[in-house]
C-alpha cells in the first residue's frame, strides 16, 4: 500500500527510557560472560531496565506525553490509541487503555494493543495510515512500549544480554497540506518460523479434564543464530523494494533508522545500501534491543544529539517475533521532535 486516499502527517515523536543502567560487567554477576563477548557479537555495552514498580505503562505514558507536546495536539484531539506492545505488564486491560486513561483522552476513544513484537511501530503506522486513509479516525496516538526485562530468563546468557526496556510514541494526523509523510510502507510475516522467538502464556486446563503440558514460568525463548541468519538474508531485499516503491534510490534517502537488535545486522543493512556511518542511526550500545520502541528511541535521540537533521527522509526497518518484519520510507518534518 503506497498511496493513501488521505495523506498523513507525522506530527510528533517522543521517547522515554528507565533511569537504571545495567552494564555488561554487571551481567557477569549473573552468569559466565564478558563485556568483550557481548560487545563484539552484538554492539551492546549497556541497557536500561525498569526497577521497582516502574513498568511499560509508565514509560509509554511519558513517551506519549512528549510526542503529544511536539504534535501540538491535546488529549481531547486524539480519537484512537494504538499501543504496539508485546511485553506489557498486563495482557488486559490493553496497554493502550492504560495510556488513554492516564493521558485523560476523553470521549471513550477506541484503544487497543497490537502484537507484532519488535516490528510493532511499523505495523501500527500501517494500521493508523489505513484508519486515517479510510476517513475513520483523524488523530491517532501510537505508543510502542515493552518491558522485556520482566519476561527474560536471567540465567539464559544467550538471550538476556540482548534486551532492554523503553518506550517510543508517534502522533499521526491527516496532512492538511496534502503531502504524505509515508512515501512507502510494507509489513510482512512468516508464522512458519514463529518458533525462532516465542513466549508462552501460563495456564492450566479445567481440573475436570486431562492437563496440558504448559510452561508455568514463561520466558522469552530465542534461537539467536536462526534469527540472525533469517534477518540478514531476508530484510535487505525488502529495504531495497521499499525505497523503490517510494520512487527513490538509496542515495535519495538521508538516514537509515533500523531496529536496534544487533550491530552486525545494522552493518549488514548499511553495507547493502552503501551508506556512510553518518547516515546510519545506531544507539544499541547504550540501550540494547528495546523491541517496538527501538526505532522511535533511535530517531528522537538521533535528533537530540544532532545526528539527524529534520526536514529529511528516512528508511525505517524492523523485524521481530512472528516472525514479522516491515519497512517504511518516511518524511521527517522539522519540529516533530
Ligand atoms: N557470554 C559468553 N558466551 C556465550 C554467551 C554469553 N553471553 N551466550 C552464548 N555463549 C556461548 C554459547 O554457550 C556457545 O558456546 P558453545 O559453542 O560452547 O556451545 C557460544 O557462545 C556460541 O553461541 P551462539 O548462540 O551460537 O552465539 P552467536 O554467535 O550466534 O551469538 C547472539 C548469539 C544471540 C548474540 C546472536 O545469535 C544474535 O545476536 N542473534 C540475533 C538475535 C536477535 O536479533 N534477536 C532479536 C530479534 S528482534
Report on this structure.
With 337 residues, the chain is an alpha/beta fold. It folds into 2 domains: 167 residues, Peroxisomal Thiolase, Chain A, domain 1 (3-Layer(aba) Sandwich), CATH 3.40.47; 151 residues, Thiolase/Chalcone synthase (Peroxisomal Thiolase, Chain A, domain 1, 3-Layer(aba) Sandwich), CATH 3.40.47.10. Helices cover 29% and strands 22% of the residues. The protein has 9 helices and 13 strands. The strands form 4 sheets. It has a 5-stranded mixed β-sheet, with helices on both faces. A hairpin with a 3-residue loop joins β12 and β13. α3 crosses α4 and α6 packs parallel to α7. The longest helix is centred in the last third of the chain and has 22 residues. It is globular, with a radius of gyration of 19 Å. Coenzyme A binds next to α2, α6 and β12.
What is the secondary structure topology, with strand pairs?
Layout: E1 8-16, E2 21-23, H1 24-27, H2 35-42, E3 46-48, H3 56-71, E4 80-84, H4 95-103, E5 111-114, H5 120-133, E6 140-146, E7 166-174, E8 182-189, E9 197-198, E10 221-222, H6 224-245, E11 255-258, H7 263-273, H8 284-287, H9 294-304, E12 312-320, E13 324-332
Parallel strand pairs: 4-5, 4-6, 11-12
Antiparallel strand pairs: 1-7, 2-3, 6-7, 8-13, 9-10, 12-13
Helix pairs in contact: 3-4, 6-7
Coenzyme A (COA) binds next to helix 2, helix 6 and strand 12.
By helix and strand content, what is the structural category? alpha/beta
Number of helices: 9
The count of β-strands is: 13
**H/E order of the elements?**
EEHHEHEHEHEEEEEHEHHHEE
Radius of gyration: 19 Å
Instruction: Give the overall average pLDDT.
Output: 96
CATH architecture of the largest domain: 3-Layer(aba) Sandwich
The biggest beta sheet is recorded as: 5 strands, mixed
